[in-house]
Amino acid sequence: MTIGEKLKKSRNDKGMSLRELATKVELSASFLSQIEQGKASPSIENLKKIAHTLDVRVAYLIEDEEDDIRNIEYVKAANVRYIESIDSNIKMGILLASNKEKNMEPIIYEIGIDGESGRDYYSHGNSEEFIYILEGELEVYVANKKYKLAKGDSLYFKSSLNHRFKNTSKKEVKALWVVSPPTF
Question: HTH cro/C1-type domain: which residues (predicted)?
Answer without folding.
Answer: 7-61
